[in-house]
């Protein structure tokens, strides 16, 4: 059967003025700085812009291809296979109709960006804000969008804060100076109330999966008890309720990610499936032999293997951004990897193995300056950092429900609507079609085009409840709390004789991977388990990152906002007892 995509030709979009691009000033100054360090030409080439060779200045007008897409909509080179055949279509513009002019504006006073990827000194900020003095179990959290007197935490927006302020979440903000009461929060999580091997559970495997608040458990059981029915076939009351609940959950995900339209939210099984979706749609359509996909050395296997599979099918080449010995991406090397054959950059926002918070604003900005699309693997950032895909200008963003205190088996892919419209479906079946004949199938528009079969409706409902819960607490509040807990735990672990923390990036979130001299990692994890402490030992599905440090595995305690100082103390005591009893 032919690839009968019913997508309309890309509409000639409004030409965006360069100053509307959230990162333009950042990109220009960064590009100059990186270019001068890397010995590259100092002028960024924006596809379709005055510097790009052969670029027109009008909106895309190329002929519609057989499947309804516009060929040659971007000025980037159309790849040609060695046999001389035309390669895949150039991808749609990063911004539709992006015949951008590079106009420099001096907004440096608004966007104080320095190239140093380390960002602000978090400890100093904590100290200045008085969080240290107040202790971390009940900190008074400043209102996230009241910048007066607010400490400049990197994880609350950093250089992109002005852009983020343009797209504030519309609800769920904690009242100004609300108190973060971790003990009250812990009572919301039934799993945390149990004893394991006679000890209170200390759950420190949050990077793998998180525990669920009662509100999430109730929402899913309520759905099954009352509203269970198929969605989008609302011929009867229950089906209508189920459809409403499912689509309400999509709207909550939209709000959680700061997306413009809920049509940009595709439900998936999680981050892994979301990345595979992009590989099998964007990849199959727009990435051909000799084209390049840029990932980093610290990726989870979920952001490596799908690209390898694609590369095996298409002959595309994978390029890897190296990390330094703190576990930070080397941005100069990243800039050098970007070129005319680069079709996609796909990087983690936060490393699950090292905890590094990557400077994705810069990563996206540098890629967009060359017309390259960017996928952000948000599996580890969504639980800890307020996300706003519009402020970030991410083209795709993936996350998993089970890591943000929601059910397993549900997650989402955000994609800019003009991109999702341009992509072919990847799985066929019910729900994603408008019409099926043996001669031809007509597909739905996104997001349904990518949601073949009966979805995980209860999972989506539970995910919506998890988002409600996070908004109730306030993501900036929990981010500040978690960071103070990380700052509490780090020196305590560092003080343990023979212990080495793996991953010491200046910007870190919630992960404390380590090794301990003379103690195999599995032995440490078993010792913890006997004391009710749940911690993972292994490669954490990030073998290349481990191997950078000459390791095959680490022990990885990882924090969530329901952990407290007592949890950290139990971990530290267990390590001391292990060493003493050797
Ligand atoms: C950074 C990162 N990406 C992707 C994944 C895969 O997530 P999932 O298994 O929920 O699809 C994980 C899971 O640990 C992760 O940490």
Strand elements, count = 19
- Shape, per Cα inertia axes: globular
Q: Report the major sheet.
A: 7 strands, mixed
CATH superfamily assignment of one domain? Aspartate Aminotransferase, domain 1
**Major β-sheet strand ordering:** 6-12-11-10-9-7-8
Give an overview in words.
By secondary structure, this protein is α/β, with parallel strands linked by helices. It has a domain at 178-204 and 474-580: Aspartate Aminotransferase, domain 1. The protein has helices at residues 24-38, 122-129, 131-134, 161-166, 182-187, 214-227, 237-257, 271-286, 305-314, 331-337, 360-368, 389-392, 417-422, 457-473, 475-494, 521-530, 543-548, 565-580, and strands spanning 138-141, 178-181, 195-196, 199-200, 202-203, 265-268, 292-296, 317-321, 342-348, 373-377, 396-400, 411-415, 433-436, 441-443, 499-501, 514-516, 533-534, 536-538, 554-556. The strands form seven sheets. Strands 6-12-11-10-9-7-8 form a seven-stranded mixed sheet, with helices on both faces. A two-stranded antiparallel sheet has the order 1-2. The longest helix is centred in the middle third of the chain and has 21 residues, at 237-257. The radius of gyration is 24 Å and the shape is globular. It starts with 23 loop residues before the first helix and ends with a helix. The model is unreliable at 1-24, 38-87 and 97-177 (pLDDT under 50). The structure holds pyridoxal-5'-phosphate (PLP).
Quick structural gist:
With 582 residues, this protein is of the alpha/beta class. It has helices at residues 24-38, 122-129, 131-134, 161-166, 182-187, 214-227, 237-257, 271-286, 305-314, 331-337, 360-368, 389-392, 417-422, 457-473, 475-494, 521-530, 543-548, 565-580, and strands at 138-141, 178-181, 195-196, 199-200, 202-203, 265-268, 292-296, 317-321, 342-348, 373-377, 396-400, 411-415, 433-436, 441-443, 499-501, 514-516, 533-534, 536-538, 554-556. Strand 7, helix 9 and strand 8 (317-321) form a beta-alpha-beta unit.
């Amino acid at each position: 059967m032919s690839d009968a995509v019913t997508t309309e030709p890309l509409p000639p979009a409004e030409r965006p003025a360069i100053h509307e691009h959230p990162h333009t000033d950042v990109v220009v100054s960064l590009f100059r700085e990186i270019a001068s360090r890397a010995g590259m030409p100092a002028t960024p080439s924006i596809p379709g812009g005055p510097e790009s060779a052969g670029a027109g200045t009008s909106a895309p007008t190329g002929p519609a291809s057989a499947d309804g897409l516009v060929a040659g909509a971007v000025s980037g080179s159309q790849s040609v296979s060695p046999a001389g055949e035309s390669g895949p279509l150039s991808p749609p513009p990063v911004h539709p109709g992006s015949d951008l002019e590079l106009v420099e504006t001096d907004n440096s006073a608004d966007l104080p960006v320095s190239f140093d990827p380390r960002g602000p000194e978090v400890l100093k900020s904590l100290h200045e804000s008085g969080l240290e003095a107040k202790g971390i179990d009940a900190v008074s959290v400043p209102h996230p969008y009241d910048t007066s007197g607010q400490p400049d935490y990197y994880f609350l927006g950093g250089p992109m804060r002005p852009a983020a302020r343009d797209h504030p979440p519309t609800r769920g903000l904690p009242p100004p100076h609300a108190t973060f009461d971790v003990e009250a929060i812990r009572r919301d999580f039934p799993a945390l109330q149990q004893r394991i091997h006679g000890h209170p559970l200390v759950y420190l495997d949050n990077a793998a999966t998180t525990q669920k608040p009662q509100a999430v458990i109730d929402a899913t059981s309520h759905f099954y008890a009352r509203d269970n029915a198929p969605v989008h076939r609302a011929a009867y009351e229950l089906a209508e309720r189920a459809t409403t609940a499912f689509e309400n959950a999509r709207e909550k995900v939209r709000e959680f990610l700061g997306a413009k339209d809920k049509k940009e939210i595709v439900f998936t099984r999680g981050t892994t499936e979301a990345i595979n979706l992009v590989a099998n749609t964007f990849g199959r359509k727009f990435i051909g032999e000799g084209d390049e996909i840029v990932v980093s050395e610290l990726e989870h296997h979920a952001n490596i293997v799908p690209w390898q599979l694609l590369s095996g099918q298409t002959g595309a080449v994978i390029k890897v951004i190296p990390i330094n010995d703190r576990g930070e991406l080397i941005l100069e090397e990243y800039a050098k990897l970007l070129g005319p054959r680069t079709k996609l950059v796909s990087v983690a926002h936060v490393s699950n193995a090292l905890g590094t918070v990557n400077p994705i604003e810069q990563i996206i900005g540098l890629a967009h300056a060359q017309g390259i699309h960017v996928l952000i693997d948000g599996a580890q950032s969504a639980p800890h950092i307020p996300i706003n895909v519009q402020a970030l200008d991410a083209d795709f963003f993936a996350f998993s429900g089970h890591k943000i205190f929601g059910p397993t088996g549900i997650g989402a892919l955000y994609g800019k609507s003009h991109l999702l419209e341009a992509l072919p479906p990847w799985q066929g079946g019910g729900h994603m079609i408008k019409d099926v004949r043996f001669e031809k199938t007509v597909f739905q528009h996104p997001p349904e085009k990518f949601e073949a079969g009966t979805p995980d409706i209860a999972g989506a409902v539970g995910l919506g409840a998890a988002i409600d819960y996070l908004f109730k607490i306030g993501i900036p509040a929990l981010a500040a709390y978690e960071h103070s807990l990380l700052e509490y735990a780090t020196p305590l672990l560092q003080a343990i004789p023979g212990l080495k923390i793996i991953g010491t990036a200046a910007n870190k979130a919630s992960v404390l991977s380590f090794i301990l001299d003379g103690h195999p990692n599995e032995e440490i994890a078993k010792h913890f388990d006997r004391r009710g402490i749940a911690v993972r030992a292994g490669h954490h599905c990030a073998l290349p990152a481990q191997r950078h440090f000459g390791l095959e595995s680490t022990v990885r305690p990882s924090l969530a906002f329901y952990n407290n100082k007592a949890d950290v103390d139990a971990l530290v005591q267990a390590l001391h007892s292990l060493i003493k009893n050797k």
